[in-house]
Amino acid sequence: MKTPRLWRAGYSSFLIFLLILFSGVSVVRAETPAKENRDVLNGPFAAGRFSLQLVSGAVFSLANLPPDSPVLDYAQTNLRLGYMLTSPGPEESFLRGTWEVLGEISNAVIFKGFGNYIGGITCLFRYNFVQPDWRLIPYVQGGAGIVYNDAYKDKTQQAIGQAIEFTPQFSIGCRYLLTRSWSFDVEGMFHHISNADMADRNRSINALGGFIGVSYHFPDR
Questions:
Q1: Whose CA is closest to 124, among 61, 168, 188?
Q2: Which residues pair with 160 in a beta bridge?
Q3: Which of 33, 138, 177, 205 could cysteine-pair with 193, CB 3.0–4.6 Å?
Q4: Phi and psi (nearest 5°) for 53?
Q5: What confidence score (pLDDT) does residue 180 get?
């Protein structure tokens, strides 16, 4: 008769142990996501952090905007080095976020229109909308730069008049944080090319484009 009693006592102790274990695991699971979200979201966007972004896509000119503007469509790739100027604030609002400055190197291959290539450098300022419990980080950015091109050699068009042109631009996009270090990025851009009347031909190009890419967020030093 001792064996069943020992078995029942052991079984009861085992059930109590499992109950305590699962209770502890439930508490840990309840606390961990919030902590992980704070670490994942605030870490990469803290002041002083660097990131490297690579995006690629296509840009399509808005024909006849301005009037008589020719068609110029190009496939473009942008490599950007970003630096966080600020950290997310403690306030809880939709505007909570960080300011970021980026240096960009771009290269484009013209696939419709005149010329063959456009490439240059751009300085961008970006505002990231960062929330404590979001992995999706929307952003807006704008800036300007210069590009070198061979499209100006086609004298039948009046849009691009010299080898060095200016490129004001504006973008909206979002990053989805896959891990602490990596994000998948989607972006839409308005792109302008002109020379501020420094050449006789300056009809200009206005274009809209879309990009997809990835970002690597360097760990804190």
A1: 168
A2: none
A3: 205
A4: -120, 135
A5: 87
